[in-house]
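Because discrete structure vocabularies remain unfamiliar, we reproduce here a specimen of the format, pairing a chain with its fold in token form:
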Amino acid sequence: IAYPKRGRVPEFVAVKDFSLEILPGEIVGLVGESGSGKTTVGRAAIGLLPIKAGKLEIVGKDITNVTQKELFPIRRHTGIVFQDPASSLNPRLPIGESIGEPIFIAGLAKGDELNKKVEDLLEQVELPRSYRNRFPHELSGGQRQRVGIARALALTPDLLIADEPTSALDVSVQARFLELLLDLQDKLKFACLFISHDLAVVDILAHRIAVMQDGRLVEVGERDAILKHAKDPYTQRLIAAVPVPNPEEQRKRREARLAAK
């Protein structure tokens, strides 16, 4: 996956030799440090970035070389929740319009029917129906991220990309957000690529975990297999870096890392 040339900035290949299949109803946690290529993969997976080589399929449809016109109906099968809920919502639009915009553009509803769908989506993410008339600045960070989920689910996608959706939230808000996401996934059965640098968060959600380093996929496996029996040294270092509440356990980890060196 490459970022195209812009002005004097040359083309930059961000992801190489990456192969991952997400099954219907499955949550895959994509982890790695900042700059490893996680967000690039997420954006490419829904057609926001071009694929330089290889093949990309969504619900059995090859979108590798399709035109924007051909991509439009396929994108209805995907949704994305961005990292920063403040910048991902139009500050000039009431949140009801932000949520309803994908439905209107897709030609699925308008007028009273559209308003009803928006209110139903707000209820689905546990926000009052009256919030459809509020603006983003009137909501908390957690509430704005719930709006982001409602908008992403507006077209009932088969695949949801969640790009570090909890990184801008307080820990207490994170827990409720993750619980909501799990409830929605269990109810709606969409596949989910959950991008995060936080293995503790991925441990709560994911069925499988994929680990990225420097634009490459280094390890993929079932959640417990990765977290308890990681084979790749980079994955082992990521797991060892996760803080634990017990100071004695933290000391033992540190001593084990030093001994390994």
Q: What stands out?
A: The domain at 2-231 is CATH 3.40.50.300 (Rossmann fold). The beta strands are 2-3, 12-13, 27-31, 57-58, 61-62, 78-81, 159-163, 191-196, 208-213, 216-222.
